[in-house]
Amino acid sequence: MAKLLDKQRYKCALGAMQTVQAIDRALPILHSGPGCAQKLSENTGSSGYFSPNIFPCTSINEKDVVFGGVKKLDSTIENALKVIDADLYVVLTGCIPEIVGDDSGEVVSRYEDAEKPVLYAPTAGFKGNNFKGHEQVVDAIVDQYLKKSDEKIEGLVNIWADVPYQDLFWLGNIRELEKLISELGLIPNTIFGYKRGIENINKIPKAQFNLLVSPWVGLGNMKKMERKLGIPYLHYPTLPIGATETSKFLRAVGEFAGVDKDKVEAVISEHEDYYYYLIGRYADLFLENRVINKQFTVVADAQYSLGITKFLVNDLGLVPAKQFITDDTPKNYRDKITEEFKKLNFGIEADVSFETDGYKIHEEIKTHDYHGYPLVLGGYYEKEVTESLKGNFLNVSWPHQDKVVFDDFYVGYTGGIRLIEDIYTVAVQRFN
Ligand code: SF4
Predict the structure, then answer these.
(1) Structural domains in the chain, sorted by start
(2) Lowest-pLDDT range, 8-22, 61-75, 146-160?
(3) Residue 118 parent element (H or E)
(4) What percent of the chain has pLDDT over 90?
(5) Which of 17, 36, 57, 126 to mutate to test the pocket of ligand 1 (most atoms within 8 A of CB)?
(6) Contact between 333 and 301 (Cβ < 8 Å)
(7) Bond preceding residue 188 cis, omega within 30 of 0
(8) Nearest CA among 225, 168, 216 for reference residue 409
């Protein structure tokens, strides 16, 4: 029997149009029904160049379901190439053309010799969510566009983190990761955001290695690039937030890249000195607030649930209640992620549940004894339940209604401080 999913935290795979949108001057061409893009776009900023309202779409209808929509797709690509000035065109398919069996890949292959690259990613909603759709887009770039390179640039590192736009902080996070990697003397290469795009995509095969900062999203892409392009990869499963994890992260990257250990330690100690100076200045506030929020819960995708849990335990000394991962993590990754929740300082282990149903999550939050008011970091859905328990709430994961983010970030030493500021800005309001 079909199940109802309460408070879903992701979109269908076609939501990967936001991954394409995050690549500077890349354009999604949608082979889908007319309502898909409208439903999937949201108010978290356009690419700055194309708005989702102008994405070319075949808008297939009943007639195309009967006779097929490939002709429409062909003319939509042809006209998009004529009238929209982009560097990269990515055809994304929705449910209807894939159900009726349109061979979209064959249509796209007719544009092999076009002046600009035209790629194709199968992203029908029934194939999975937008985390999987994101991987499909990266796979399409690797499979259909990139070629193995004999030329390597010493120190060039391709950085991959989690899903743009789904992660409200994607732009700031990836810029901060670039900054940290540069401080080690390495050369970061990313494809998302301002002034990156096709030039950086072209550099991917020349990298010394791929760096994946994510519990699971993108791991398949790394394996594919290792096989096809001969690029080794370092998988760092935790989004490094705050000093403890960021220092571990820099040591891991430094070791993998062969950076001199003294240099790595010098970078770490400069950051840590300032970080702990800031923490020390507000020690009284932390101690006071500990009486109020003894335990916390994070409700987020694997990336934030794990990253924030490690941060709150290791850097702030808070105690984890149950944590929830809401991104429908594929089953084969779950054991490893669960293990990561056991690698906390002070011998602490966090209980974690892979749960997509908001009703069940809220029932568990309501019945758990937080030994005081809960601190809940989650999607906007958690606001009401946290307020009903007189707890403190911070909106860190999708859906986002409480925060507008241009390029703010939670990654790294500075990101940890930003997260502390956000948490305690909420906490001090209790005293007003
Ligand atoms: S699930 Fe299918 S029909 Fe619905 S928005 Fe996604 S691609 Fe379109």
Answers:
(1) 13-144 (3.40.50.1980), 156-240 (3.40.50.1980), 271-429 (3.40.50.1980)
(2) 61-75
(3) strand 118-122
(4) 84
(5) 36
(6) no
(7) no
(8) 168
DSSP 8-class letter at 318:
P
Find out whether the beta carbon of 57 lies less than 6 Å from any atom of ligand 1.
no
pLDDT 10s digits, 395-429: 999 999 988 999 999 999 999 999 999 999 998 88
**Which pLDDT value is given to residue 1?**
60
CA distance 39 to 329: 23
Q: Is 32 in the pocket of ligand 1 (CB under 6 A)?
A: yes
Q: How many helices (H) and strands (E) does the chain have?
A: 18, 13
pLDDT of residue 29: 97
295-328: buried (b, 16+ CB within 10 Å) or exposed (e) per residue? Answer: bbbbbbbbbbbbbbbbbbbbbbebbbbbbbbbbb
Looking at residue 327, the DSSP 8-state letter turns out to be: S
Nearest-10 crossing angle of helices 170-183, 242-257: 50
Q: How far apart, in whole angstroms, are the C-alpha atoms of residue 317 and residue 420? A: 12
Q: What are phi and psi of 85, to 5 degrees?
A: -85, 95
CA angle 332, 336, 341 (to 5 degrees): 135
Report the pLDDT averaged over residues 28-55: 83
Q: How far is the CA of 32 from the centre of ligand 1 (A)?
A: 8
